[in-house]
Amino acid sequence: MESEQLFHRGYYRNSYNSITSASSDEELLDGAGGIMDFHTSEDDNLLDGDVSSGTNYTMTNGGNINSSTHLLDFLDEPIPGVGTYDDFHTIDWVREKCKDRERHRKINSKKKESAWEFTKSLYDAWSGWLVVTLTGLASGALAGLIDIAADWMNDLKEGICLSALWFNHEQCCWGSNETTFEERDKCPQWKSWAELILGQAEGPGSYIMNYIMYIYWALAFAFLAVCLVKVFAPYACGSGIPEIKTILSGFIIRGYLGKWTLMIKTITLVLAVASGLSLGKEGPLVHVACCCGNIFSYLFPKYSKNEAKKREVLSAASAAGVSVAFGAPIGGVLFSLEEVSYYFPLKTLWRSFFAALVAAFVLRSINPFGNSRLVLFYVEYHTPWYLFELIPFILLGVFGGLWGAFFIRTNIAWCRRRKSTRFGKYPVLEVIAVAAITAVVAFPNPYTRQNTSELIKELFTDCGPLESSALCQYHNEMNGSKVVDDVPDRPAGPGVYSAMWQLSLALIFKIIMTIFTFGIKVPSGLFIPSMAIGAIAGRIVGIAVEQLAYYHHDWFVFKEWCEVGADCITPGLYAMVGAAACLGGVTRMTVSLVVIVFELTGGLEYIVPLMAAIMTSKWVGDAFGREGIYEAHIRLNGYPFLDAKEEFTHTTLASEVMRPRRNESPLAVLTQDSMTVEELEAVINETSYNGFPVIVSKESQRLVGFALRRDITIALENARRKQEGIMRTSRVYFTQHAPSLPADSPRPLKLRSILDMSPFTVTDHTPMEIVVDIFRKLGLRQCLVTHNGRLLGVITKKDILRHMAQMANLDPESIMFN
């Protein structure tokens, strides 16, 4: 959809029904961010046609309601369309905050009148806790369902359990008495496709048949996933985190968190993960949890009728999503705080913590992996790390930062090419092509054939006496009669060297395929592929350091702490540090990522290596560009998102950025008491602006307030229907008292109730550095520019984004809704 279509919608006299049709329907959700208790006003895109509801309130310096202007008088009448927002618009934070305060005052004033009113006040007070509880319950249940279904369908590519079709491979062999220690995954109940079709389990023919069936199921799952997304819910593709960040910053993407998106995303996420594509389910689980939070918020009027309050629920829901994705409730809360939320008050922190707790409890009760853990790759280490190991840990951090910078640049370049060429018009073919290449190349290598979560689990796991992985095929020099938990460092056997080559090939494969997979039209997360790349690199480095310590234990770096026969190096720990470093390099998360990985391992003593690697990764990545992958995709999609992490250091003034410019037509304004209904309609018909400053007169240009186009339109239609005597020649006034008129004049129309008497203003000499800071911290959508009290122009959020792009030597028009 072109930006001109989105942001230059004119007003037509017969278009009232279309304007008022945007109701508080479940699909309308949509932008979120911070409710700011300051003088703000109106529309994020005042001059770009962002038609939103206006502010019907007046504020004094203390933020209290001015009783003389009857806050929300206009909203007392049941006028359709007032208080809602159109698609691709920004909510008015101050308006929503004032509506919530008025609602709260009414409840408090009535609660002593009767037992029923007191009960209603209790229900209102507890509704926040109820909605996050329901969100946590639904998120945990859906995550458990997705985990179980994805495991079963992933194993379906290799075979089927004849004794119970609903069992995956591991569950099928649980009850078998015919498994051996070396071949614990083989049992008579589980049949590969070659055994079922050809009747033989070994040989070239069976290998080719299994190969063909693997590709067939991968293509079938991918094709079904992309078709469901394309037909039923286009918003179900991708990870969802860039859009959720934008929504939480105050933007509306209608239908993005609706029931159809939830249903299709849940189903197609299972199919996409089972297809073997280089993607994960962790990012999309945040989107699923936010869909649950949005849907449940409509059960409570406190949240269904207030878009800003609804954003608080979405912040808690995103914490619940990460909680079930990684089994890290505290990490989920910090992820919501650090990465996605724009506004995060203290009560939202508590509710986010509670939602994450409930979601984790439900997932633990379901126990989808059968290991009494919330994630498949939970591990515990018992060997301490040594100071010398900080060197390879920091090197892994450097690798993670380089990988993150490389991935962001190449993936964004590929996504931009997809948008700008004919290739992007065929999403089904693209998914089929990527799935086919992935399946064909992945099958021969056991490390790419298996589920990525299982690969990470194998890479994280330390080699003990009960491990049968090829990564643990060392030359055994232990006393066979003595079984210990800590196996001493040993020389690597042929199996380890073979596994190292296979892991190196898997690393190259994962790097290439992840670049082309992230952004295709199926649910696709980035956490698991990034962690897999880092875990592979970390495991290779860990084995190399382990062998170095074994063969050169007399070197000064090993001599003090690594004795012969001791268990000095833990390769699994290196895999864990590498995974955290690569994920940090891509997303630029820091604190929340350390806590998530800490909760995964349960090892408090490994926080320092994790912090060293993740901070190194961030520093190296920031050297090539400060944007994480989610911010880069936000900019690619042209969402009006002001990133708080981005610095503005240019020395421009508000007068240089405001509109109208010198070569543009004058600013469209309204006068406070000298216009007729016909003149007002003419202004609306002849312009596409979203709102209009109200001034004393054309001569004085003294600012009175601000009125939104949407509110004016609704007020005019409502006056024609409900008030007698309103004619085209009726005088319109925004003042408290009607102007003196001749006796034979038609009845005047008072519109003071839709006027915002406290629009945010700056002077023309205000530095843009301060203006940008104000927009970020107050969540403004626009502010008016004055000189000695006289109106000069307006600055909107999009003006600021265009100016920042221009200062960065980018085309300012190219970033707006490509």
From TrEMBL:
InterPro entries: CBS_dom (IPR000644), CBS_dom_sf (IPR046342), Cl-channel_core (IPR014743), ClC (IPR001807), ClC3 (IPR002245). The keyword Repeat applies. Residues 658-724, 755-813 form the CBS domain. It is a multi-pass membrane protein. GO terms for molecular function: ATP binding; chloride:proton antiporter activity; voltage-gated chloride channel activity. Gene3D superfamilies: 3.90.1280.20, Clc chloride channel (1.10.3080.10). Keywords: Antiport, ATP-binding, CBS domain, Cell membrane, Chloride, Endosome, Glycoprotein, Ion transport, Lysosome, Membrane, Nucleotide-binding, Repeat, Transmembrane, Transmembrane helix, Transport. Its main location: membrane. It holds the Pfam family CBS. It is found in: Cell membrane; Early endosome membrane; Late endosome membrane; Lysosome membrane. GO terms for cellular component: early endosome membrane; Golgi apparatus; late endosome membrane; lysosomal membrane; plasma membrane; synaptic vesicle. The chain crosses the membrane at residues 126-150, 214-236, 256-277, 284-301, 313-337, 386-408, 428-447, 499-520, 532-553, 573-598. Strongly outwardly rectifying, electrogenic H(+)/Cl(-)exchanger which mediates the exchange of chloride ions against protons. The CLC channel family contains both chloride channels and proton-coupled anion transporters that exchange chloride or another anion for protons. The presence of conserved gating glutamate residues is typical for family members that function as antiporters. Belongs to the chloride channel (TC 2.A.49) family. ClC-3/CLCN3 subfamily. This is Chloride channel protein. It comes from Erpetoichthys calabaricus (Rope fish). The gene is CLCN3.
